[in-house]
Design goal:
Layout lengths: L2 H29 L7 H17 L6 H8 L2 H27 L5 H12 L10 H46 L5 H11 L4 H22 L15 H17 L7 H20 L18 H13 L8 H12 L3 H10 L10 H11 L8
Length: 365
């Protein structure tokens, strides 16, 4: 075979593979119900994160980083869509050149004309006409996917944020497990905690589904800078863990179920983003909540008049036994999405813990 024809054939096959890979990335990110951590989409998000980290490095105040990283989710999603279109453009450019378009420049014009449905380049021959129709269809399909994807994202975002905003009523902003328990004490409604744990068990189940099937949603920030879905999750699990370990109130197994639903959801999200954790931690494994922090929280609850158990050592062991199930994933996801300061861990401490213990391919800062 003529060497030039061999090169063109190889280029055409490579172009077909590139275009197919772009379509696969779009399907895995947008259409597949059980979304996968696609490498093409991940690279687009990584590049956006590099830019945002350069604009707002960890040394800058959180308020500034929050304003900058509010663009991470939307811009990352847009960058992913542009990446898919660019790969389709390059793929079909190589295909056109491979099937006989004289130069790569002419192939690029032909591919751009078809992909963007501009129609300024008329194909010659039935096969190239069919390729033009196919590329135009793919271009329109990718644009339609993105347009249809946005309402789904915003609907899931709205459902998530309703609970986050309601938590501010119960636990302040940024939310605190201690403040939440103190408020129920002042209201004299310990029985209402049962309904609270039920609501959050459902919320955690929805969180697991939405944040593993809609890749960009985890990076969509709450309207209020000091609110966040991840700090809300940690607050509720901590409040349930404190109620089960430290408070001298009747046992409520719904609190146990809420905690379990929470750490199962966080582990699923961690799996999606490549975050490592111990799936079977021991009760006495260390967490970021030290005994000193626990005692400080207990003292605050005691001053507020909450009934506490006398055996503080056992209470801490019980609390640690709950916290160890979600401590590492909670900290890693908080760092990944640049979450606001939480009750137990300020931003500097969380940053240190994240850098030394945890990592994720989405996190480059």
């Amino acid at each position: 075979m003529d060497p030039e024809r061999l090169v063109r054939l190889a280029a055409g096959l490579l172009g077909a593979a590139i275009a197919a890979r772009a379509i696969l990335a779009a399907i895995r990110t947008v259409i597949l119900p059980r979304s996968e951590n696609d490498a093409v989409t991940r690279i687009a998000f990584q590049l956006v994160r590099r830019v945002l980290n350069a604009i707002a490095p960890p040394s800058r105040p959180f308020a500034f980083r929050d304003r900058v990283f509010a663009y991470f989710g939307p811009v990352g999603l847009l960058a992913a869509a542009v990446t898919w279109l660019l790969l389709v453009f390059v793929g079909f450019m190589l295909i056109y050149w491979g099937v006989g378009t004289p130069t790569l420049t002419a192939a690029a014009r032909e591919s751009g004309s078809a992909l963007l449905t501009l129609g300024f380049y008329a194909p010659s021959g039935a096969f190239q006409t069919a390729l033009t129709f196919a590329e135009a269809t793919l271009g329109l399909a990718l644009a339609a996917l993105l347009i249809a994807y946005l309402p789904t994202i915003h609907a899931a975002f709205s459902r998530r944020e309703v609970a986050v905003n309601l938590l501010e009523v119960r636990a302040d902003s940024p939310p605190s497990a201690v403040a939440m328990l103190e408020r129920y004490q002042r209201l004299g409604r310990w029985d209402a905690l049962h309904l609270e744990w039920e609501r959050w068990e459902i919320w955690f189940a929805e969180l697991e589904e939405s944040h593993t099937s809609i890749a960009a949603l985890a990076f969509y920030r709450s309207p209020k800078p000091m609110n966040s879905w991840i700090t809300a999750a940690g607050t509720v699990m901590d409040a349930a863990a404190l109620s089960r370990s430290l408070l001298d109130i009747p046992k409520d197994i719904q609190a146990d179920l809420s905690i379990r639903a929470g750490f199962v959801a966080l582990r699923s999200i961690a799996d999606f983003y490549g975050i490592e954790y111990d799936p079977r931690p021991k009760q006495d494994d260390p967490t970021s909540v030290t005994r000193e922090k626990f005692d400080a929280a207990a003292a605050e609850l005691e001053r507020a008049g909450l009934p506490l158990r006398a055996d503080r050592d056992q209470a801490f062991r019980d609390f640690n036994g709950w916290r160890v199930n979600y401590d590492r994933t909670l900290l890693a996801i908080s760092r990944l999405i640049v979450a606001p300061p939480a009750f137990w861990n300020g931003p500097e401490e969380r940053e240190t813990l994240g850098r030394t213990q945890l990592g994720t391919p989405y996190d480059l800062g």
